[in-house]
Amino acid sequence: MDTQQERLSHLDRALSNGENICSSEGMLCSFPTSLKKPFMINGAGLIVCRQGNFTFSLNMKAFSAQAGETVFIPEDSLFQVLSESEDLQLFIFIYQIEPIRDIIGNSVATMYLYMQLRTEPCYVWNTGDEEEVLKYMSLLDNTLHLDNNTFNDNEQRLLLLGLTYRICSIYNRKLMNLKTTVGHKHEIFIRLIQLIDAHYTEERGVEFYADKLCLSPKYLSALSKSVCGFTVQELIFKSIIRKSISLLKNTQKNIQEIADFFNFPNASYFGTFFKKQTGMSPQQYRKK
Question: In what residue span(s) does the HTH araC/xylS-type domain sit (predicted)?
């Protein structure tokens, strides 16, 4: 697209059509019309402000952003631009998580969930990583006009995965810089995520993780629930299901082999667990 107006119009259409990736494909000096009224973001979003400033509402709360700051929009958020300065320069990138949900790592998936469910989320800040984020956005822009084939699709998915990892790394760094009691609770939660990521295929009991963190199972589950809305057990089960889906969709492993991977007693036991969590048997999920 040669002109800014063409890119603005294309972004507007992409947002209205709910496309998997909605990008400004370069710098804009104004927001698209869709975002100037209440708009449900059916994906995760990034807005990098290069110059000027703007105000916006996110889930009915007012915020502002200025040059050098990045706005992070979590999944399924109600967004609206309220005002923008005449000298505004910004980049917009909104993408669906669903196409990469089966390949994102457990730590990233849980951290991303945490970003959405925090009671006091951070939506705007100067990360110091704006240029690196823009590089990812530029590389992804290049994939938008490639032919649809397996290689190009996988390249795009991996770039989206890389961008998601970068976002979570930024968020993790900000959390670890907190020196308050709340920050300490978050630190425990992050350590829990790391332990689950390392051991969820063998250890499904809360006691194992509580022991590793020198906490009682009851306290650890209460802490997890207060931070992200899920107990430790629920996080472990979500990790198993996410990896199970990836194995069903992306490998030729049979159900017994997948059951063995997660140390279930047999394929039937795994099938019952999987159906309870997803509403479908592993065989049904593989065929859909």
Answer: 190-288
